[in-house]
Amino acid sequence: MRYLLVASVLVLGCNRSGTRPDAQLSDLAPTPDGRADSSPADGPAAEGQGDILVWPDSGVNRDLTLPACNGKGPGAQDCHARLFIDSARCSPAQPCERLVVYWSGGEQSCVDGTYDGLMQSYAAEGFVAACAQPFSTSAEAGAYPYYQEFDRMDELMAALRALPEVQAAWTGNRLLIAGVSHGATAPLAAIAAKAALRSHAAVWTGKQATAVVLYDGISNTATLEEWTASQQNCAQWHSRFVGRYGDGAPLLHSCSNKACYCSGPAHAADWAADTTALGSTYPKSPYTCVDVTPQSGTVLYRFVSCSGGSAAPCGALGDIIPDDQQKLAHDGLASCAGVVASYKQYPACAHTLCGSKLCGFNDTLTWLSSQGF
């Protein structure tokens, strides 16, 4: 099996067999060690992973690093992407119907090859497959409210869609926006904040169908922060969740520290803007169905929970984002006109495996096919 691989950087601060130095603070980083997606067994075939093809008319491997994300904030780090196309499935002579843009977890490791196996699995299923990350480092990805990432995500998706390889290999008909952890949180916050399926439809929707699949994402950071405070060994996660909003990064929950949401922090409005569980009153979500639906037609939303089984929360094999974060997001959207919503729970799957073949990938493709996607 042959693939076109467009890579921004092959290695960025770590090797593919080890964790990043900041992995313990990554936003639920699916790390290279132990993640099924990164193993040859989870890809289409081990022997296919080194067989890289560039179409004769595409010149050389295209650099998909966008320096400083072309001036799009927040921050000034580069945006990155890697693109996989199975030339036996998608070609100028027979373009594919489906493109998936899969957003990295908070470790921001598309460029490190962490998601290569997963992207090859998508490519083998007849997708033009892109792994995308809006920042270069985990620390920067944890420095801003999720909804503020819209401009970076919009810029990177537009650049991906405009690539000659994508233009040639994809019909433009069906767009799947997916991701895990941070990559399952920022897309919905960005869509809602800008009503992107309406106001930026040329980038955020397919010509015929659009789907959004979110593995272990966050829909209410205030209740998540309080959940981490009630668990053992979750202090660093608590610090990261609170620190995103710019009023300090306490390890412990407090309603008087002017950092946690219940303490009335200066940036409380940013917590609310990241609350994508429609109908939430704590914080009060600013969004309605109009913000998450297209102008016409339908959008498919699927929310996936990985519950960690009996493993301790906040560990590599346990839960980090509890099921209510996905379930309440699903429930809020399910009644919206123009939405077909699905929720699936994998009780035994660790957060670090969410979205891999036995923890959502296979079942999600079956569900998408049942919806004509």
Question: What is the fold's blueprint, element by element?
Answer:
Blueprint: E1 3-6, E2 80-86, E3 96-103, H1 116-124, E4 127-133, H2 138-141, H3 150-162, H4 164-169, E5 170-180, H5 182-194, H6 196-199, H7 201-204, E6 209-215, H8 221-229, H9 235-243, H10 268-273, E7 299-306, H11 324-334, E8 339-346, H12 357-370
Strand order of the largest sheet: 1-2-4-3-5-6-7-8
Give the radius of gyration. 19 Å
Distance N to C terminus: 24 Å
What fraction strand?
Answer: 15-25%
Tally of individual helices: 12
Give the biggest sheet. 8 strands, mixed
**CATH architecture type of the largest domain:** 3-Layer(aba) Sandwich
The CATH homologous superfamily of the largest domain corresponds to: Alpha/Beta hydrolase fold, catalytic domain
- Specify the helix fraction band: 25-40%
Assembly form of the protein: single chain
How would you sum up the global shape? globular
Which consecutive residue ranges, at least 5 long each, have pLDDT under 50? Answer: 6-61
CATH topology tier name of the largest domain: Rossmann fold
Would you mind describing this structure in some detail?
This protein has about 375 residues and is α/β, with parallel strands linked by helices. It folds into two domains: about 5-215 and about 275-370, Alpha/Beta hydrolase fold, catalytic domain (Rossmann fold); about 220-270, no CATH class. About 25% of the residues lie in helices and about 15% in strands. The protein contains twelve helices and eight strands. It has helices spanning about 115-125, 140, 150-160, 165-170, 180-195, 195-200, 200-205, 220-230, 235-245, 270-275, 325-335, 355-370, and strands spanning about 5, 80-85, 95-105, 125-135, 170-180, 210-215, 300-305, 340-345. Strands 1-2-4-3-5-6-7-8 form an eight-stranded mixed sheet, with helices on both faces. Helix 11 (about 325-335) links the parallel strand 7 (about 300-305) and strand 8 (about 340-345). The two termini are about 25 Å apart.
